[in-house]
Amino acid sequence: MEKLREVGKPVTRVDAYDKVTGRAMFADDLCPKPCLEAKVLHSTIGNGVVKSIDASEAREVPGVVGVYTCFDVPDTPYPVAGHPWYADTRSGKRDVMDRKLLDARVRIYGDNIAAVVAEDSVACDRALAKIKVEYEEWPVVYDPVESLKGTGHPVQDRCPDNLVAHTCAVTSEEDLARNGYKSVDEALNDPSYHHFRAHLETAEQSQVHIETCVSYCYMESDKIVCVSSTQIPHIVRRVIGQALGIPWGDVRVVKPYIGGGFGTKQDVHFEPLNAWLCTQIGGRCVKLEVSREELFYATSGRQPKTFDVEASVGDDMRLRARSILAYSNTGGYVHHGHALVLNSVNSFRWLYHTNEVASRSEAYTVYTNGPHTGAMRAYGVPEGNWAAECLMGDIAHDMGWDGVEFRMKNAIREGFVDEFTPGGVIRAHTCALPECVEKGRRYIGWDDLKARYAQEEGPVRHGVGVSLFVYKTAVAPFALETATAALTLNQDGSVQLQMGATEIGQGADTVFCQMAAEAIGIDTEDVHITSFQDTDVTPYDSGAYASRQTYVSGTAVKKTGETLRRKILEYARFLHPDAQGELDLVDHAIVDVVGNKVCALPELALEAYYNMEHNDQLHAHETIQVHTNAIAVGCTFAEVTVDMPLGKVTVDRIINVQDNGRLINPKLVEQQVHGGMAQSIGFGLYEELQVDPKTGRVLNPTLLDYKMPTMMDVPDLEAQFVETDDPTGPYGNKAVGETPIISPAAAIRDAILDATGVKFYQEPMTPQRLFEGFKREGLI
């Protein structure tokens, strides 16, 4: 790969000093004090209708400014998912509008039915306690398969059968016939091959970011200003406009520093309600902050899913056919809907396909009376990876094959094109998976550990496991991918970068500065960026999701930087018409064709602002649309200790090795991988939002009861990389942010299987489930 000047350097984060010193200002820090506060009354049933609400006593509580019920708000449905509004203006594809500010139709336990605005939170709490609600209660259905049978009261009127969507991608009849089969089932059950099947489950996982969801709203010059902790400020602006039935230009959204999101804040939760409440009390400032408990049940976590998987495989280790049937529980509202489980089954299909002659990927997304669900890091792929890798682990174990060798005989290779994706956009232009696996295998000492642990007996055993992953970058061709960047040359020769793309802790602002510096030909430290997005000022960008920003928004940065560079050189030619040959920008100076210095960049910048003959404040503003995609790949190797009587798994060593294309900032990528690996350990062993299926009520909405890995549960995390130069990325880069959470959970499961011979199909593999599994197999 060509060595670049600024891209590829482990430069310090541009926001590092502010964050470590506490100088960084988050939404609550910026909120004027004192201000009015708002709190929401949540339903205490999981399905039914609010018949009446008596708020008379609540309105008499000292300090209460207003009480508003589901009968007071506009009857206007709106969407909440953080997507571009139009997937295609001609087809009219749009996010589903199934939410209201407050709603008398209760679909989930904890639905929003009333709100209080008061001088302080104590008055809010006292008023909420005095509101009397009369319900008509209906039976709750939490299981998606049961929900599809009909409930008598559809969760959403638009779907009488509670089916959000159903898709099925199957090998064509022509391709099946070419290999001697009439159906996928015939290929799966061919007696010449070994047949495997399994039923798997993944739980709802919460993002549990440090900063809860918080916003404050006020009116200024008849415009609603909403300051929000969000990943998608421009989409929040649009949704507030839709929900309130006002022009989108009458709304201004500001996103300050944000204390994590991981997908929760890719939904528009309470900002529209907060904005509406603000309009009801004369435009005064109202803060609405979600409590930690509300964060668990009143915002969206990872969709729970079930998978039925099958495979047939020959004695030569080559897969013959595979099938996956998935059911996804979206809860009472569609949020991100079917896109999540599509990612699950697509990644299942892409990861292992090389030798297949038949495949089927079928998925259902279903409304139930379960809690909110939506986007969470890697957007459905960890669940699909769990299904794929549990199946592969079972096959390797039962057949007595080496798990690495078996996987690599069937894994995705460079040149892969998904036949079911429009235009063949999903394509592996680069794929260093073999190099990644070899690197991880050497690090963990795969062959030595497999031999050492093979004959272990007793209650405490050790094992080593592996899993692979695949992940696409951004959302093209399924949805619009567009971004804009703006660059201005300052008087001192530095540049100002404005982005609608959002820094949410991942380091995006830093890599944008590096990419801009690379394109212009200056140092990263001379690029200034503000981590606040303001929809009245910053150019449009969809926001932080789908590992899209460095790939999509970075393309806008590169194009804008190249435009500004061209304008700088054109102005240099005006100032120095006699300069020899083509001019260049090198080390803060304009040089001629033989390398002689023509002028310094700061000198040119000053002239551009104040030249009496030809003043030109040099500026570039470019919009791009990305139609391509890129596939990132990698693997996890894990070594574990299993204490069977205690049902305890200790992760002793774990490594992720990834091909993320060119690394824009290797240090930031390493930090991202460490965080994702820790979250995946939680996904595999600890984290589960527990729901009472009879009521739909979340049973563990506290940090005491929702179990997460702590620093004592996470070992030293090792991250390694194999860099490739992907031709579609602005600087050869592809997805990074979400890839590290995908495969560690399945690698841990594979290591437990290696240690004990016991197969687990439900995640998380909690001590209770582990104990029951070991007892079932006679090991305890």
What would you say this structure looks like, in words?
Keywords: Molybdenum, Oxidoreductase. This is Xanthine dehydrogenase molybdenum-binding subunit XdhA. It holds the Pfam family MoCoBD_1. The mean pLDDT is about 95. This protein is about 30% helix and about 25% strand. An eight-stranded mixed beta sheet has the order 3-5-1-12-9-10-11-22, sandwiched between helices. It has three domains: about 25-140 and about 215-290, Aldehyde Oxidoreductase, domain 3; about 300-475 and about 630-775, 2-Layer Sandwich (Aldehyde Oxidoreductase, domain 4); about 480-625, Aldehyde Oxidoreductase, domain 4 (2-Layer Sandwich), CATH 3.30.365. The longest helix is centred in the C-terminal third of the chain and has 27 residues, at about 550-575. With about 775 residues, it is α+β, with helices and mostly antiparallel strands. It starts with 15 loop residues before the first helix and ends with a helix. The protein is globular, with a radius of gyration of 28 Å.
